[in-house]
Amino acid sequence: MVTAKANILVVDDDEMVRLSCRRVLEEDGYSVKTAENGEVGLKCFKEIQPDLVLVDLKMPGKSGMDVLEEIEVMDPEVVKIVITGYATVSSAVEAMKRGAYDFIPKPFTPDEISLIVARGVEKRRLLLERKALKNSQEKIRRNMVSLVSHELRAPLGATVQYLEVLQAGMAGSISSDAKELIDRCVIRLRELLELIGRWISLATFDPARMAESFEAVSLIDVAKEVMALLTAMARERSVSLNLDAPKRLPSIQGSKVCLQEIFFNLIGNAIKYNKKGGWVKVTLYDEDQEVLAEIADNGVGIPEEHLPRIFDEFYRVDGRRNAPIRGSGLGLSIVKTMTGAHGGRIHVGSRVGEGTTFRVHFPKVLNPQRQN
């Protein structure tokens, strides 16, 4: 947490400004480090990990704007205040876009620098308190998910085992009608266990931890492997599967397992919600700074009013209890979450009776996670 001994970094090529800031801020009880240019400032930033940074916009070499941008990438929660001798509305707006919290024009008085830094330090304190609270709540949530999953899975798994004993006739002979009912119970219970498993995977998904094991992945390989797994399902439903990809396609940084899950859900849905004799086409291509995956079909399509909600957890277009096509309503939610964890985004277009197209954008260079 930020205390009265908060760490402050001052980056300014004017020695008098650095000395003045150090004197005033140390009198206010802060720990102060100064740097004479952007390069030195960024090095100091990595060393001391300050709570607040004062950055001069106009410096030789690396500009204040560049320093702001790099600090924003390294730690977006650090409070950044701009020092400028030529404050304009446009420069202030541009600084805010680079992550600046506030700015102070030169020349400034000791009281002015004390006031604006005090506000910034309080902002930092509130940010860290909120982050700590969020982490605590997330820990509680994960513990609850783990507990609930165990409490749900254990009795369901045991019940399935008991029913399988009855199915096998190990507890005595049963009538054909009773066996049919038991078979249905086993099928439904297994569906429920699968649903719980998918919900737990989504609820406990940790993008930061997953990103630690990212590696170069070929989307061509992922698409081929997933389509091979789904060939039998497509054949059973008389749906043709086709892949259109260039001979060479840039790899992306990601988790192959998660990327397979994305493709498995999208291609699987395209097969499942298709018509006899229909087709599913997977297209991969290179576009500027992204690699795109397009999964298109000529199936039943999605009504326009449902499109805004199809990525919501447990949402199903056909939500009837006895819908002809079963599903958990979690597949597309998992797709969106895992796509975001790869710095990507996903879009969907559909027309009833004509088909649906999902377009997934993956960055060649990994971006911070974003929401779609």
Task: Give the topology.
Elements: E1 7-11, H1 15-27, E2 31-35, H2 38-48, E3 52-56, H3 64-74, E4 79-84, H4 89-97, E5 102-105, H5 110-167, H6 176-203, H7 207-211, E6 215-217, H8 219-229, H9 231-236, E7 240-244, E8 252-254, H10 256-272, E9 279-287, E10 290-297, H11 331-341, E11 345-351, E12 355-363
Parallel strand pairs: 1-2, 1-3, 3-4, 4-5, 7-9
Antiparallel strand pairs: 6-8, 9-10, 10-12, 11-12
Helix pairs in contact: 1-5, 2-3, 5-6, 8-10, 10-11
List the keywords.
Heat Shock Protein 90, 11 helices, 12 strands, alpha/beta, 372 residues, elongated, Rossmann fold
How does this model look, in words?
Mean pLDDT is 84; it is low at 319-327 and 368-372. Helix 2 (38-48) runs parallel beside helix 3 (64-74), helix 5 (110-167) packs antiparallel against helix 6 (176-203) and helix 8 (219-229) crosses helix 10. It is built from 11 helices and 12 strands. Helix 3 links the parallel strand 3 and strand 4. It has helices spanning 15-27, 38-48, 64-74, 89-97, 110-167, 176-203, 207-211, 219-229, 231-236, 256-272, 331-341, and strands at 7-11, 31-35, 52-56, 79-84, 102-105, 215-217, 240-244, 252-254, 279-287, 290-297, 345-351, 355-363. The strands form 3 sheets. Strands 2-1-3-4-5 form a 5-stranded parallel β-sheet, with helices on both faces. The protein has a 5-stranded mixed β-sheet with strand order 7-9-10-12-11. A two-stranded antiparallel sheet has the order 6-8. It has 372 residues and is α/β, with parallel strands linked by helices. The chain has 3 domains: 7-108, Rossmann fold (3-Layer(aba) Sandwich); 134-203; 210-363, Heat Shock Protein 90 (2-Layer Sandwich), CATH 3.30.565. The chain is elongated and about 95 Å long. The longest helix has 58 residues, at 110-167.
